[in-house]
Amino acid sequence: GEYVPGVTEVIPAVVIYTRKRCGRYKARCVALGNRQKTVTSAEVYSPTVSHSANRVLLVEAAAKAQQVVQFDISNAFIQGALNDMCVVVKLPKHWSKDPDGDKVRLLKALYGLRIAPRRWYDTYRDYLLSAGWEMHPKEPGLFRRGGQTLSIYVDDTLLTGPCPSKLEQTRDEI
């Protein structure tokens, strides 16, 4: 994105460099959302499955001799769109041409933003509903489709069902 003049709040961003267990290096640009002032707590709430619902899911899978598959979504937060809001971040100095750091408008959520978990959940939920999954009325992180059950905890997912090959197919589809 590009900077939009007139925006009052600019959130700083930093780059975190880490070395993975396999020896490869990783760089991650993270917004310092703890300095964000204009977001309300209602906008940052992201529903997740409760621990008791996860226990029921696992007990049910064990009782029915079903398979359980766990997976996480890579780069989940940047898949959440920020179409309806203007979020501006100041890039780290070593990533910009401006000595003070370039200011850019984000089109997608960035890890560290207070709104990122909610935007990711909304994107994931909308996808699941469009793919025929039904959300549990009292557990917004629990979905069912056919003989499969799916629970969401931010970017981690548990999937249960009777057939291992169908679970893998569903995981790949997601």
Topology:
Layout: E1 10-19, E2 25-31, H1 41-44, H2 51-63, E3 67-72, E4 87-90, E5 103-106, H3 116-130, E6 134-135, E7 142-145, E8 148-153, E9 156-161, H4 164-173
Parallel strand pairs: 1-4
Antiparallel strand pairs: 1-2, 3-9, 4-5, 6-7, 7-8, 8-9
User: Counting H and I runs of at least 4 residues, what is the number of helices?
Assistant: 4
Please state roughly what percent of the residues sit in beta strands, choosing from under 5%, 5-15%, 15-25%, 25-35%, 35-45% or over 45%.
25-35%
Q: Which geometry do the CA atoms define?
A: elongated
Number of beta strands: 9
Average pLDDT over all residues = 86
Biggest sheet strand line-up:
3-9-8-7-6
Radius of gyration: 19 Å
* Largest sheet: number of strands, sense, barrel closure: 5 strands, antiparallel
Taking pLDDT < 50 over at least 5 consecutive residues as the criterion, the unreliable ranges are none
Tell me the span between the first and last alpha carbons: 27 Å
Helix content: 10-25%
Structural class: alpha+beta
Q: What sequence of helices (H) and strands (E) makes up the elements?
A: EEHHEEEHEEEEH
Protein architecture, described:
The chain is an alpha+beta fold. 24% of the residues lie in helices and 28% in strands.
